[in-house]
Amino acid sequence: MGRYADGLLSEGERVVLRARQHWLAPALEAKWAWAMVVASFVLLWLVIGLKPDDGLRSVLGPVLLILLVGGLGWLAFVYANWMSQDYLVTTRRVLKVEGILTKKSADSSLEKINDAVLEQTLLGRWLGYGDLEILTASEISVDVYHRLKDAPGFKRTMLDAKHRLEDDVSAPPSPPLRTSTPEGGSSATPMPAAMAERRQMTAAEITAAVRDLADLRDRGALGPEEYEAKKQELLGRL
What are the E-state strand segments in the chain? Predict the structure, then answer.
């Protein structure tokens, strides 16, 4: 069964990095649940030391059970919520999904992200987590990722994906190398010298160019029809 976040991806969008909060985040969030479990074991030790006919035993027994069951249930909920997290960097955006049954998602387009402010305490650098605040071009915070596992790596991957997307969008389209005649064949229209030189490619160069086209298609920068047309154009040079 796929992750909920995968169903939110658009056509051609790929996941570059998948992360979640550091394990310390649920441990701190569930501190009172841990306290309940510890208290239940303390009460259990006290109950064991009491005499069977001691009236206090009948009072502490139910309290012990409530603390133990409640604490374990609380712990299970916190850690299930942590496991359901998905913090994604895709080829188009940054996406955060949280929640077990009720899902909450928030995303920021890579094009609108200007920078990200990373804050790591000494403990965070030691354990490998940090807080990452994502900023727009107007320096407005759009989201904050608290206690994110490997926050520096997440920031680096996000900015790299943003730069790749900008390069793909700004790259000029390659000019057509062939024109079609009304009869459907290829015309023998002379090409400029620069285009004729570009046409002299080795088989290895053509193979690499086809791989690059496939990568652009997977990122969504090329449509399927445009990809097939350019691919056939390159293969025609062999």
Answer: 15-19, 86-90, 93-98, 104-109, 113-119, 129-136, 141-149
